[in-house]
Design a protein that fits this description.
104 residues; 7 helices; 434 Repressor (Amino-terminal Domain); mainly alpha
Length: 104
């Protein structure tokens, strides 16, 4: 049940906001945050970051549209078949894809 303004004022009168913030910072530094979010990095994002290429450059190197690459990186779609294999190679051996780009 939501508190009314009178209850909120009474609660806030007894709080030490500075001490609460300091305690929260100490907890965060100790790794005791109330919650943490872990984001899995897609193979496409990992490979592209290792190569240091823009989305446009990486999409061109793979022979896919920028939109397809964005869908893969954001996890809305998953690469399949040859594209999946090529992304795995690019993630493990980025120099191979860079060599291919130099030839073009």
């Amino acid at each position: 049940m939501p508190k009314n303004e009178k209850d909120l004022i009474a609660r806030d009168a007894t709080r030490d906001i500075g001490a609460e913030l300091l305690q929260a910072v100490k907890q965060m530094k100790a790794g005791e945050a109330a919650r943490s979010t872990k984001v899995a990095v897609s193979t496409a994002s990992e490979a592209r970051s290792k190569l240091g290429l823009s989305q446009s450059q990486f999409a061109t190197a793979l022979g896919v549209s920028i939109r397809t690459l964005q869908e893969w990186e954001q996890g809305r779609r998953l690469p399949t078949g040859a594209a999946k294999r090529l992304l795995n190679i690019a993630a493990r051996h980025p120099e191979v894809l860079l060599e291919e780009l130099a030839v073009q």
